[in-house]
Amino acid sequence: MVNALPLPCPRPTRLTLDLGAVRANRRRIVARVGPAVRVAGVVKADAYGVGLDPVVRVLAGDGCRDFFVAHVGEGVAARAVLDELGVSEARIFVLNGLLPGTEPTYAAHRLTPVLGSLPEIADWTAFRAGAGMDLPAALHVDTGMNRHGLSLAEAREFAAHRKSVGRAGIALVMSHLACGDEPGHPLNALQLERFTAIRRLFPTIAASLANSAGVFLDDAYHFDLVRPGVALYGGATVSGEASFLQPVVRLEAAILQVRDVPAGESVGYGARETTKRVTRVAIVSIGYADGFYRTASSSDEIPGARGFLHGVFVPLIGRISMDLLAIDVTDAPHAARGDVIEMIGPNVTLQDVAERMGTIDYEVLTGLGRRYERVYLGA
Ligand SMILES: *Cc1c(COP(=O)(O)O)cnc(C)c1O
After folding, report:
1. Nearest residue by C-alpha to atom 6 in ligand 1
2. Residue 269 is among the residues annotated as catalytic for this protein
3. pLDDT number for residue 8
4. Which of its termini does the chain have fewer beta carbons within 10 Å around, N or C?
5. CB of 378 within 8 A of CB of 19?
6. pLDDT tens digits along 74-84
7. What is 256-316 written as a DSSP string?
8. Catalytic residue among 163, 269, 372, 376
9. Could you confirm whether 376 is annotated as catalytic?
10. Which atom of ligand 1 is nearest to the CA of 180?
């Protein structure tokens, strides 16, 4: 017979997500760009791992009416939340554009495709004519990143035929910065100059160039609408910028056991780190399967990530495994089984973790594991 009582089945890692901080970060961006500029919310990739549904709710509740996703399926999910909230006027832009055959999905869920090539424009125009719908689209023009978007020549050619612009129903002209996170990079000014010229070709259509990094560049980059993503989630694109934002993510993991390892012993796979003294080692329930990437491992040559416990920073020792990692808690002598170590939070910043993983805030956020207990604050 199955026991009817719920048995304890705790998740040893906890991810706390502060939605109040997401709201506060958007408000800071609103204050930064001023009342004439719309501040969209980029919620692709499950709102950078923070959670599409709760993030759309908090942003919509704070007046956000423009959302950007990457995939059409993400747009469908965002539309369901917005409909439930009764915010039917909100726009949802799908950055990855139009794959063949997806037009009816866009129409059914009132999603705005970001058209980035001539075949996409042709398909969308044909669909609009056939369906007799007036759903708008956005136009992505490439100004130097060479990833997505019409070339400058294609954009000029398209703009020269007002009728085709009208038939495609373009409501927003946008481009994307390649080096916004390097304020002094000459490509920024070049992209701005090219986008300014493109904008003149579509004088009556709203324009958008800035992602989070663009928000923090000169006001000239703001145009009519800015598209911050990572900044909403407390991620910095330029060092120092994080001080302007509130941290959103807190990651904590439980200590499963504490052991004393004699000097001269190695810890973990590959025996990459050797104890220099009698070392108190905490075995912690988090690993690379939780998005705590192996690149943050520690070795005799290169220190790895660190945690925070009982008021002190405590360094990783040895390689990160799939479900476990080891932390040298010699300097936190009261560390005990069941204690919880801060792996990301107010002391161990997201920026610090990203740097020690050899990556960027974005990748840490979007890699956050699915095994965590998730706690939302400030909803
Ligand atoms: C992801 C993305 C954004 C948001 O970028 P952040 O750097 O996270 O602010 C804006 N625009 C486009 C085209 C994107 O792909």
Report:
1. 229
2. yes
3. 83
4. N
5. yes
6. 999 999 999 99
7. EEEEEE-TT-EESGGG-EE-SS-EEEEEES--GGGT--GGG---SSS---EEEETTEEEEB
8. 269
9. no
10. 7
CA of 197 to the centre of ligand 1 (A): 22
Which atom of ligand 1 is nearest the CA belonging to 148? 13
One-letter amino acid at 301 equals E
Ligand 1 lined by 42 (C-beta under 6 Å): yes
- CB-based contact 195:209 (threshold 8 Å): yes
Strands 249-261 and 13-18: antiparallel
Containing 66, the helix (H) or strand (E) segment is: strand 66-69
Question: pTM score, two decimals?
Answer: 0.95
- State the closest ligand 1 atom to the C-alpha of 181, by its place in the atom list counted from 1: 7
Averaged in consecutive runs of 10 residues, what is the pLDDT profile of the chain (379 residues)?
74 95 97 97 98 98 98 98 97 96 96 97 95 92 96 96 90 97 95 97 96 95 98 84 85 97 98 98 97 98 98 98 98 97 96 96 94 92
Ligand 1 atom 11 nearest Cα: 211
Per the structure block, which two tokens stand in for 233?
């989630």
**Furthest-apart CA atoms within the chain: distance in Å:** 78
- What is the gyration radius of the CA atoms in the chain, in angstroms? 24
Confirm if 353 and 343 have CB atoms less than 8 A apart: yes
114 lines ligand 1 (CB under 6 A): no
